[in-house]
Amino acid sequence: MIVTPSTVLRWQRRRFRAYWTRLSARPTGGRSPVNPQIKALVTRMAAANPLWGAPRIHGELRKLGIDVAERTVSRLMPKRRSPPSQTWRTFLTNHVRDLVSIDFFTVPTARLRVLFVFVVLAHDRRRVLHFNVTEHPTAAWAAQQIVDAFPNDSAPAYLLRDRDQVYGQQFRHRVTGMGIDEVLTAPRSPGRILLPSASSVRSGASV
């Protein structure tokens, strides 16, 4: 068959999605789904009583004869997001030139393996300073990447990262020894710290 490269890539993406969908499929059985009427009632009670938490709403439901777990009530309640604080905005304004971010993103291979790409990004110009690839990321490996990214006392003042378990004790010890202060994102923050474009990775590779 004679096909275009884009067709091969489309087939490979479809194959990769199907493979990992089968691996991550939820097992059959388990708990029965929550009644939609209970979901609507919890949402209504939370909206009408902003100061009520999951324990209070759970207690009110028990009074109505509705048997549902408090954890389920907490999961059904709408999440309230507060706007970012002025303190954090001020910090970014004052220290953006001394702030770098690190993060991982994944790349699927033709053999259905998953490679982890580690990226170090300068915040002031959104420039890729360093990147490397591994199949098995560890705290020691991530710590070595920081050393490689900032040789000869060129370490930044602040390092922004998420709370991934890969940044273990070895990583934190190495960063502290280099005189870098870590700034952690809030728990369960949506999205990633950085999402480098293909052009930025190419420009970083040529530096």
Count of helix runs: 8
Name the overall outline: extended
Strand order of the largest sheet: 3-2-1-4-5
**For this structure, what is the CATH homologous superfamily of the largest domain?**
Ribonuclease H-like superfamily/Ribonuclease H
Q: Briefly note the CATH topology name of the largest domain.
A: Nucleotidyltransferase, domain 5
So what's the CATH class of the largest domain? Alpha Beta
- Rounded to the nearest angstrom, the distance between the terminal CA atoms is 40 Å
Describe this structure in words.
The protein has helices spanning 5-23, 36-48, 54-63, 70-76, 86-95, 139-149, 169-177, 198-205; strands at residues 99-108, 114-122, 127-134, 158-161, 181-184. The longest helix has 19 residues, at 5-23. It folds into two domains: 36-76; 86-205, 2-Layer Sandwich (Nucleotidyltransferase, domain 5). It contains eight helices and five strands; from the N terminus they run αααααβββαβαβα. 42% of the residues lie in helices and 17% in strands. A hairpin with a 5-residue loop joins strand 1 (99-108) and strand 2 (114-122). The chain has 207 residues and is an alpha/beta fold.
Provide keyphrases for this structure.
207 residues, extended, 42% helix, 8 helices, Nucleotidyltransferase, domain 5, 5 strands
